[in-house]
Amino acid sequence: MGAQRAANTTRRQPRPAITLEAVTDAALRTLQRDGLDALSMRRLADELSIQAPSLYWYVRNKDELLDLLADALLAELRLDAHVRTDGDWRTELRDMMLEYRAYLLSKRDSGRVLAGRLQLGPHFLRHAEVILGAVRRAGFDDQDTADSLYSLTQYVQGFVLHETSPLSADVARGADPKKFLEEARERLAGLSPEEYPNVVAVGARLARPDIEARFTYGLDRLLDGLRSRLESRDRD
Predict the structure, then answer these.
(1) pLDDT tens string 165-184
(2) Which among 75, 89, 80 has a CA at the least distance from the CA of 32?
């Protein structure tokens, strides 16, 4: 009888006095301060000063929490600041993607949170609208416009994920990345030119520390391809 009463009391407990927005904000703070590996339901409950089971009123598990975070991470991004009216769509998209990368780099572990997630939240949709508008104004058809959105945003997100990951186990443990790259260049230079003629020829460039140049090279080639695609359609 007493056990039944206790069970009924447990079932009738009211929803904790927090909001989904508060949960998301606390998760963002924890992510920025402690990183993705430290973000757990228990850690988040501590951040909110509630019991961990109370979180399940709002999110069923960590994956659902990451879905919320993937959109919330983009709340302060302002791609619309780069909208142009002079018809220079290439510069417009380039500036947007440069802004996107810089923004993601300012948000700890953002590349890991965003990787592989189909985002349909309000913040992503706002940015998608801006990018799609730039591509459509350039004259691309609907299929090319949709594919361009994926190509551009996934290039940036993938690159950020790459550049924020440790170069090696030693670097992950605290070794100097520049020293690691120096050693990598020396190792590549010491390879047999008979066995690896192409690697040896460009080895110093493969291990160069200028990741900014590497990013812009890839972005520019992607935009060049879009321009060629548009020009070929115009000729047809």
Answers:
(1) 887 887 778 888 888 889 88
(2) 75
pLDDT digits (tens, 9 = 90+) for 124-137: 999 999 999 999 99
Q: Are 31 and 82 in contact (CB under 8 A)?
A: no
CA angle 155, 70, 34 (to 5 degrees): 105
**Amino acid identity, residue 104?**
L
- The total number of structural domains that make up the chain: 2
Q: CA 65 to CA 84: how far, in whole Å?
A: 35
Q: What is the spatial distance between Cα 204 and Cα 182, in angstroms, rounded to a whole number?
A: 9
Rounded to whole angstroms, the Cα distance separating 163 from 46 reads 31
Instruction: Please tell me whether residues 46 and 89 are part of one structural domain.
Output: no
Per residue in 89-141, pLDDT tens?
999 999 999 999 999 999 999 999 999 888 899 999 999 999 999 999 999 99
Contact predicate 222/152, CB 8 Å: yes
Q: In one letter, which amino acid is 175?
A: A
Residues of the domain holding 63: 2-72
Last residue of a domain, one of 46, 72, 98: 72
